Amino acid sequence: MRVVLADDHDLVRSGIKALLQMVPGVEVIAEARNGRELVTLVEDLQPDVVMTDISMPEMDGISAIGEIHSRHPGVRMLVLSMYDTVDFVKRAVAHGACGYLMKDAPPFELEQAIRSVMATGSYFSPAIAQRLLQPSEPTADDELTHRQVEILKLIAQGRASKEIAFELGLSPKTVDVHRARIMERLQLNDIASLTLYAVRKGLVKP
Which domain of life, per UniProt (predicted)? Predict the structure, then answer.
């Protein structure tokens, strides 16, 4: 099983790689520090499995999963994350993930997860499976349009309207209109509240 591993923390990635190298028949063929790099590596190397974190710079793990799934539906994608809320899991699955594993899982579960996604097409740890049975609150994708989610991420990163407009190819006035609509839809009144919302939904790192 050829695996591409993605996590923006070098130490975490090294630890996961070391554990995977102890699993017979598993080879880590490449590593990525962000979602954009992950998409490129998968395009070039065509691995069997992608194991990725969610919160990464440049492109988050869920966006990367969605892009990879649309181009390479046969690649199995396993999320390895510290986020265990139902909306994170459901967003990952909706974008194409076939498994979800917590970073605090015991080491043996890593082998169990990767073998399961290859053999049966899915793996969800017992804790995650139990959470999936609970009702979930709406995700950012449920509450906002794709463009609004893009703008909200940049607002939460402290970008000014002009910067956001330049990055997304919009006018500053259009960005301001989107921001007003986001605030109205979410019933939030200031940038600090928008930022807290973005962190809670996993759109940006705390």
Answer: Bacteria
